[in-house]
Design goal:
Helix content: 10-25%
Number of domains: 1
Number of strands: 12
Structural class: mainly beta
Largest sheet: 10 strands, antiparallel
Strand content: over 45%
Order of helices and strands: HEEEEEEEEEEEE
Number of helices: 1
C-alpha cells in the first residue's frame, strides 16, 4: 500500500515536472516588432442602418506590426500597395489597398457589373478591411460596392503616403449580406518601398 502511494506521488511529480518543461518558450522566436508611435495612422467611421453594431463606430488602428505591414510602390506592376496590420481594441485589424500608379489624385473602384470580365479586383485595384475579434471576425468588409481613395501626399521611402477614403462594402460576418458604409477615412502611412 505504501509503495502504491510512493508510486502515485512520483507519477504526480513527474507529470508536474513535464508540464513545466513543456511551457518553455522557444528562445529563437522573437515576437513581431510593433510600432507604438504615431507615424502610421488609419482612422474611419463605420455606418450601417441594418446592423447597429456597425453604426457610428469609430475605428482607429494602432500598434502597427512593421514586420507584416508595407506601404509603397510596386514597380513591376505599376501600383501602390498599402497593407497595414495593427490593432483596434486589442484585436487584429487589417486594411489592404492597391491602386494604380503612385500619383496624387482620386481613384474610384466600383462593384463589377460583368462577372465574366469584372475589372475589380485586379492586381492594381483592391480594397479590404477587417477586424478579427476572437472567437469570430467582428467586421469583414471584403466585397466592395464602391470605393473612393484620394491620395493627397506621396512621399519618398521613409516619408508619408497620405490620403482619405470612403467606401460602401458588403459585410458577411453575421452570415447575412449587409451593406456597410465606411466614411471619413484617413490614412498616413510611412512609405516602406
Amino acid at each position: 500500500m505504501q509503495n502504491l502511494k510512493i508510486n502515485t506521488l512520483l507519477l504526480f511529480f513527474l507529470a508536474v515536472l513535464l508540464s513545466f518543461s513543456a511551457c518553455k518558450k522557444d528562445p529563437d522566436v522573437d515576437p513581431p516588432e510593433v510600432i507604438e508611435n504615431n507615424d502610421n495612422k488609419i482612422r474611419f467611421l463605420l455606418n450601417s442602418s441594418t446592423n447597429l453594431d456597425f453604426n457610428n463606430k469609430l475605428i482607429e488602428f494602432n500598434n502597427f506590426n512593421i514586420d507584416a505591414s508595407e506601404a509603397g510602390y510596386q514597380a513591376d506592376g505599376d501600383y501602390t500597395h498599402l497593407r497595414m496590420i495593427a490593432t483596434w481594441k486589442d484585436d487584429v485589424a487589417t486594411m489592404e489597398v492597391k491602386f494604380p500608379g503612385k500619383e496624387i489624385g482620386t481613384i474610384i473602384f466600383n462593384e463589377p457589373e460583368d462577372i465574366a470580365n469584372p475589372g475589380y479586383p485586379t492586381d492594381d485595384k483592391f480594397f479590404r478591411v477587417y477586424i478579427n475579434q476572437m472567437p469570430q471576425q467582428e467586421f469583414g468588409g471584403l466585397a466592395i460596392k464602391q470605393v473612393t481613395i484620394a491620395v493627397t501626399e506621396y512621399g519618398e521611402i521613409g516619408e508619408p503616403i497620405k490620403g482619405t477614403f470612403s467606401a460602401v462594402v458588403y459585410e458577411y460576418t453575421s452570415l447575412n449580406e449587409q451593406v456597410v458604409a465606411i466614411n471619413n477615412g484617413t490614412f498616413e502611412l510611412i512609405r516602406t518601398n
